[in-house]
Automatic annotation (TrEMBL):
Organism: Streptomyces xanthii
Record's bilayer topology term: Multi-pass membrane protein
Organism superkingdom: Bacteria
Protein name (database record): NfeD family protein
Keywords from the UniProt entry: Membrane, Transmembrane, Transmembrane helix
Length: 143
């Protein structure tokens, strides 16, 4: 084991840190792996063990401190794509047949839907605009 250069050990450490990155999808392991590669480069250029460990620590910590918050902001800022009935909630529709608490018909997204009012006392006449607040089965709940 004494015959193996220090830079090879650093590359082995980088690969070993890459394995949990792939298994757990935790980006911190990738940042530590990049730090190990920096340690390997330092060893390859003839830096001593103290400098190698220092470069590993500084690069790894810098990546975690700088890149991790940026990645977290990016991940949190991505809007979720609404599909199916979730995409219909909040849309406007046009009343085709009178809609009250017992039922009626609306045109929503180019399709005819059964509908009923959210408020039991509300009544919507044909050609009125309504807002879809929920979908229950095949019935749109409107207000």
């Amino acid at each position: 084991m004494a015959d193996i250069d220090a830079w090879v050990w650093w590359l082995i450490a980088a690969a070993a840190l890459g394995i949990p990155l792939v298994i757990t999808a935790m980006p911190e392991f990738g940042m530590l792996s990049v730090g190990a590669v920096a340690g390997a480069v330092t060893a390859g250029l003839g830096g001593g063990i103290v400098l190698q460990v220092l470069v590993f620590a500084v690069v790894s910590c810098a990546l975690i401190v700088v890149v991790r918050p940026i990645a977290a902001r990016h991940r949190a800022g991505q809007p979720q794509l609404a599909t199916g009935i979730d995409a219909l909630k909040g849309k406007q529709a046009v009343v085709i047949e009178r809609v009250d608490h017992r039922g009626g018909r609306i045109k929503l997204g180019g399709e005819i839907w059964s509908a009923r009012t959210l408020d039991g006392d509300a009544v919507f006449e044909p050609e009125q605009q309504v807002d879809v607040v929920d979908i229950e089965g095949a019935t749109a709940i409107v207000m």
